[in-house]
Amino acid sequence: MVVRSELPRSKLGERLNFDFDHRPLETDATIFLRDGFEIDWRKTKQAFHDLMDNFDAHVDAEIERLASLQANALISNTGFVAIAAANALEIPSVVASSLNWADIFSYHADGSAYDAEHIGLARNAYKRASSYVAITPGILPEWHPRVQPIGPISAVGQNRRAQIAQVLGIDETAAWVVYAFGRDVPAAPASPPHNRNFVLFTPDAWDLPHGIKIGAVPFDFIDIVASSDIVISKPGYGIISEACCHDKKLVLLTREGWAETDALVDWTKNIGLLYGQYGCLDEIPLENVATWKPDSQKVTSLHLAGAHATQVIENAIYA
């Protein structure tokens, strides 16, 4: 198994429980961030157009790489260049993702023929995949002829609340709040609650007097989420799927200009776990969130895709 990713091997190893050969991902579209909430769209679109202006050359280079790996199947998250190369080599390929570059750039298209041409090239590349497994929640590519929607894919944690409370010496009956923002962390709230009604698990970059840095907690992050009451984050597939699949109340900061935001937010609303969206952390009424009861008739028991996703992908590859 060869895994090509810009993520470090150590990070991949946290989720992949099998041996794999780690290689860098040489060719794909990408997003350039100003911070964790704002995309540099001028730079991002220029990189996309540079890639698409030389699309055939990138596909040819990818054909050589796949051939050198002696690959007999390809599973791609968002990479469409690899899909086109696999198709040229007559290798079965599957897209398995909650989003795709064609729809992301379509969301930000300026109506020019230049944009339309390159978005069309990307879509046509995706269409060469044997199947498109659209992971919930996310952008559904209705334009793909072989799209197969499936449920959420999420890490599964264990509720270790009693153990965590004992190890850290914290109140098990308080409202436990997890602030989770990934690599790009916003400034800490200026007026966080500091009473015994709350336990705050915070990013390591914050120095809240009454906060507990997540990195200092001797438990897996997903177990902290599973043991908490409230998750505060920004719209992003990973944390939203993890929070909702563990039935946690969710509060989101607004994230303008992200193509997948509407799909993610609408889904959390539909399953009844989103309390609200706010412009900054200090606007969040944590006391109200703590006492809020999600609509029991809206909240559904989410079934993780898990083995079903594996089966769908295998069926597409071996069809």
Please give a structural write-up.
- By secondary structure, the chain is an alpha/beta fold.
- The chain has two domains: 2-153 and 307-318, no CATH class; 161-291, Rossmann fold, CATH 3.40.50.2000.
- 36% of the residues lie in helices and 16% in strands.
- The protein has twelve helices and twelve strands.
- It has a six-stranded parallel sheet with strand order 9-8-7-10-11-12, covered by helices on one side. A four-stranded parallel sheet has the order 3-4-5-6, sandwiched between helices.
- The chain is globular and about 60 Å long.
Q: Characteristics of this structure?
A:
12 helices, Rossmann fold, 12 strands, six-stranded parallel β-sheet, 16% strand, 319 residues, alpha/beta, GHMP_kinase_L-arabinokinase, four-stranded parallel β-sheet
Which series of helices and strands comes N to C? EHEHHEHEHHEEHEEEHEHEHEHH
End-to-end C-alpha gap: 20 Å
The biggest sheet amounts to: 6 strands, parallel
Query: Radius of gyration, rounded?
Result: 21 Å
Tally of separate domains: 2
Large-scale geometry: globular
Proportion of helical residues: 25-40%
InterPro entries: GHMP_kinase_L-arabinokinase
Helix-strand layout with pairing:
Elements: E1 2-4, H1 9-13, E2 21-23, H2 41-53, H3 55-68, E3 74-76, H4 80-88, E4 93-97, H5 101-107, H6 113-126, E5 131-135, E6 147-150, H7 161-168, E7 175-179, E8 198-202, E9 211-213, H8 221-227, E10 230-233, H9 237-245, E11 249-253, H10 261-270, E12 274-278, H11 286-291, H12 306-318
Parallel strand pairs: 1-2, 3-4, 4-5, 5-6, 7-8, 7-10, 8-9, 10-11, 11-12
Helix pairs in contact: 2-6, 3-4, 4-6, 5-6
